[in-house]
Amino acid sequence: KMDDDDDVPQLSSHALAALQEFYLEQQQREGMKTSQGFNQYSIGSIEEDWQLSQFWYSDETASCLAKEAVLAAGKGGKIACVSAPSVYQKLKEQDGEDFSACILEYDRRFSVYGEEFIFYDYNHPLDLPENLLPHSFDIVIADPPYLSEECLQKTAETIKYLTKGKILLCTGAVMEEQAAKHLGVKMCKFIPKHSRNLANEFRCYVNYASGLD
């Protein structure tokens, strides 16, 4: 029979079972990771959460950006990753190198990284722990979660507070003018890629002579 609420999308019992299975597998994967001495820093060790507008970089892009950050920070340099966890993870894989990194991130799952994790909400750009001193990072690499001027503007406040000068911003190509306006950064030739393709063209921007051109 035809019900009035036919237009209301309802998951069939089949789809529901598939979804439950998916979540179960995800939980099992999470469980396996801990039991197998899993590399907690590898990209994808924490799954993307689309509701938080999360898209991880491809391995290659994350490596390239991490390398650039290390070079830009210099020996013993300090690197802040703002909403760019896959770059932070790549940096941590290069253990023993002469630099330090921290991750500012809204997603508390990243708190597994201990003291280097700083809870960060771009809506409160300067609501940061006291031990994060102004202009204490040699480079800040940031990937604002949303393609909106408001998000960029607020993230920019955080970036300007943290950096001694160098900025590496990753955001959509459509943000070029706003990026220049709020951070004085210019688009690089390097094209960052994600592990899943994004609909929007994505680019990197810097305010110093980088290796990304």
TrEMBL record:
Signal peptide boundaries: none
Principal subcellular localization: cytoplasm
Pfam families, sorted: N6-adenineMlase
Localization per record: Cytoplasm
Keyword hit for Cytoplasm: yes
The reaction(s) this protein catalyses: L-lysyl-[protein] + 3 S-adenosyl-L-methionine = N(6),N(6),N(6)-trimethyl-L-lysyl-[protein] + 3 S-adenosyl-L-homocysteine + 3 H(+)
Keywords, alphabetical: Cytoplasm, Methyltransferase, Transferase
Cellular component, GO annotation: cytoplasm
GO MF, one annotated term: nucleic acid binding
Domain of life: Eukaryota
One of the GO biological process terms: methylation
HAMAP family: Methyltr_EFM5
Cited PANTHER family: EEF1A LYSINE METHYLTRANSFERASE 1
Name of the protein in its database record: EFMT1 methyltransferase
Organism of derivation: Melanocharis versteri
Lineage start: Eukaryota, Metazoa, Chordata, Craniata, Vertebrata
